Q: What sequence folds into this?
């Protein structure tokens, strides 16, 4: 059985709910980054999630604990990221925090998996998009909450193929 860890930062509870749904699909408990330790970043598959705040910034708990990720040895490790944002109200910084997590993980040697198409989203710009693909799973619980569970389900199945 693969060692999967889901670490999230959440202010309003939406990212926590998404993290819990993702973690449940792997039979694990999600870890709030506010309570995370360095050991929590050691996994066969590390799944990191954050909402975007301010002008494209990490969620507050991630901003405080980002050093745990920066100091993690992720060489050759599988890492997937997910983010929540508001593509209508903050169309120019949609899910930027997810892009920050992905870039940080890659800088630590991670093998980033779980990219998804940016097609069908209504944002104008995102630090999480490269060549038409999000670096992970982008969710908008403000405007498209009805799509959240199906997006998570499809993404989790995609991630599981990397564990076999």
A:
């Amino acid at each position: 059985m693969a060692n999967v860890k889901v670490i999230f930062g959440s202010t309003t509870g939406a990212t926590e709910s998404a993290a819990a749904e993702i973690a449940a699909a792997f039979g694990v408990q999600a870890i709030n980054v506010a309570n995370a330790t360095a050991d929590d970043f050691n996994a066969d598959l590390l799944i990191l999630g954050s909402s975007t705040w301010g002008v494209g910034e990490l969620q507050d708990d991630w901003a405080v604990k980002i050093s745990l990720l920066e100091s993690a040895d992720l060489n050759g490790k599988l890492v997937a990221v997910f983010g929540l944002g508001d593509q209508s109200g903050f169309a120019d910084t949609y899910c930027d925090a997810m892009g920050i997590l992905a870039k940080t993980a890659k800088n630590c040697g991670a093998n980033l998996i779980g990219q998804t198409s940016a097609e069908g989203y209504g944002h104008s710009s995102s630090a999480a998009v490269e060549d038409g693909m999000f670096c992970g799973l982008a969710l908008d619980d403000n405007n498209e909450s009805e799509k959240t569970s199906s997006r998570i389900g499809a993404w989790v199945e995609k991630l599981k193929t990397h564990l076999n």
Summary: Strands lie at 4-9, 31-32, 45-53, 57-58, 78-84, 111-112, 116-117, 129-130, 133-134, 137-139. The chain has a mean pLDDT of 95. The CA atoms of residues 81 and 102 lie 6 Å apart.
